[in-house]
Amino acid sequence: xxxxxxxxxxxxxxxxxxxxxxxxxxxxxxxxxxxxxxxxxxxxxxxxxxxxxxxxxxxxxxxxxxxxxxxxxxxxxxxxxxxxxxxxxxxxxxxxxxxxxxxxxxxxxxxxxxxxxxxxxxxxxxxxxxxxxxxxxxxxxxxxxxxxxxxxxxxxxxxxxxxxxxxxxxxxxxxxxxxxxxxxxxxxxxxxxxxxxxxxxxxxxxxxxxxxxxxxxxxxxxxxxxxxxxxxxxxxxxxxxxxxxxxxxxxxxxxxxxxxxxxxxxxxxxxxxxxxxxxxxxxxxxxxxxxxxxxxxxxxxxxxxxxxxxxxxxxxxxxxxxxxxxxxxxxxxxxxxxxxxxxxxxxxxxxxxxxxxxxxxxxxxxxxxxxxxxxxxxxxxxxxxxxxxxxxxxxxxxxxxxxxxxxxxxxxxxxxxxxxxxxxxx
Amino acid sequence: xxxxxxxxxxxxxxxxxxxxxxxxxxxxxxxxxxxxxxxxxxxxxxxxxxxxxxxxxxxxxxxxxxxxxxxxxxxxxxxxxxxxxxxxxxxxxxxxxxxxxxxxxxxxxxxxxxxxxxxxxxxxxxxxxxxxxxxxxxxxxxxxxxxxxxxxxxxxxxxxxxxxxxxxxxxxxxxxxxxxxxxxxxxxxxxxxxxxxxxxxxxxxxxxxxxxxxxxxxxxxxxxxxxxxxxxxxxxxxxxxxxxxxxxxxxxxxxxxxxxxxxxxxxxxxxxxxxxxxxxxxxxxxxxxxxxxxxxxxxxxxxxxxxx
Lengths: 426, 308
Description:
The complex is a heterodimer of chains A (426) and B (308). Chain A is of the alpha/beta class and 426 residues long. Chain A has helices spanning 76-85, 104-117, 140-146, 161-171, 185-188, 197-202, 209-226, 238-249, 260-264, 286-298, 313-316, 333-342, 348-355, 357-363, and strands spanning 2-12, 17-26, 29-34, 45-48, 53-56, 58-63, 88-93, 121-124, 178-180, 193-194, 206-207, 230-232, 254-258, 303-304, 378-388, 407-417, 420-424.
């Protein structure tokens, strides 16, 4: 049985493809892309993609699936459903589960769960240090063998620069990158939002921009020292963008991601103590948003990732200081990214690139392309179709989004993983 | 114009007009306190709960007296006897009191914004009795009321706030309120606790008390809040008190009729010398007395708004 996607506007940056054509999928592979393909067999499913975009399935390089340990927030099953609804065919999950993914048995558990219950591809990230405690290296080699595609102590950055250097040196022969949540905890000092005018008015403890920039600087320097590829998570400040830009100019092996919330919102969202605008790194100011958008446009920022971080409503509906950091993102990422396209800041091709081939190259996973013979992970979406963000309708268990009620454009009609239609909405 | 706010969460949310209504109402309330029978039946049959998640003597007592003078039934809940230690959330605690019939919740909480969570989620009116480092509206209204009483006006006055501006809810509420009523506000303290962002809130920033105090009409001294880890921000109390403690000599640099205020409780010998605390310039005990009238006005106006 095959799937024939007809008359779609196919955009695949991996092959510099940008034209209306048909795509034929046979089994789990892309068989053919050409101007006109007639249904070879009666049993084939035909998708009419007229007026829609057909692209390689999106890859989210930064997701928290919460399983094992925090199944009340999200499970691998619900996280994957949310991904599929958002057009993502692969998600890369961070190790801060309970237990922490710091050894091969946890990695194997996640992958087993993903194979049996997850409808999209799940690629785990292993911890850098045991228990993300920043004290001793985790079982990096074994986790790599078990299927981890990178290492990160996301959310609990490695404070000891010497240990971070060792991690970078050690991981290099395994060919996977170090992914850094860049934050100097001494400068963050228990802060709960961006340090600035708004935090001053609200009487909330601030996290200065410098907290991120100091750590971005350190990790770039360590990456240049060791030659290990470094991927910088969720860049949130103007000077982080500058540091990445300068590092790239020097030829450093550095890549960076930005989240839709950091390129869309400012810390003013927190007025009224809105815990759905609380995440780490925090929302910054307009000049930071402008710099991130500029970084996306000029290629300084390589990837759009969500930092999808579901929490239960009870956990978020508390005093601002007590609410956990994080918001969901899988089901709004496409339309928020398309906003940049509709505003003429980046092209559709560039947007898709940052969601497909670039993240796949950073992690060395064989996804993100529609080249004939490759695994058929495909998304079909209408970039113009409008909707209202309604958290109650999310597939994710998390309802924690600052975009509730927003009118956005861009809806996924079909998501295909390994040749199977796993999500469809007309 | 009538007062139509259901909650009083901070002076940041009130207009100049609304602040003036509270001050005018407080004047009538003050008259009640001069009577032989210091009680009016206005809130008879209504239940007010004082929900205090942080230790407080004067604010809680002052609210309690204010509520009783308005004939409300008063429930006091403080953290030591609370179910919070058993893990009950702020919202659940408040909902329980609401179920017992409380129509006004006066809340004091160590975290900024806690009263906003209540206002969003429960039906009762919420009065903020101090939240974290955010606002302490009743205290600022008392300060402004006392200034107006002493100076006859607010507009055009120079008011200096001294001390831990960063961690002070009294400072924020006063800056919001005084600026709205047309006063000029200066803040002074160690650079670590007087962040530059306060200038965007309309305050003029100083680091030298001698410079800052020049030509001011009012000095508001803030308490060094040991419980908020203020001591991380400067080397020692001795150094702090040498630089920012108010003495007779420094006060002489201000206007002749300058008044000195303090939200209490005072640390004698730290923020101000005993000499200043007991000086005729100091109106600290008058602030305490005015506190009851101002809080009666707040409760009364919120109760009115609620029944509209």
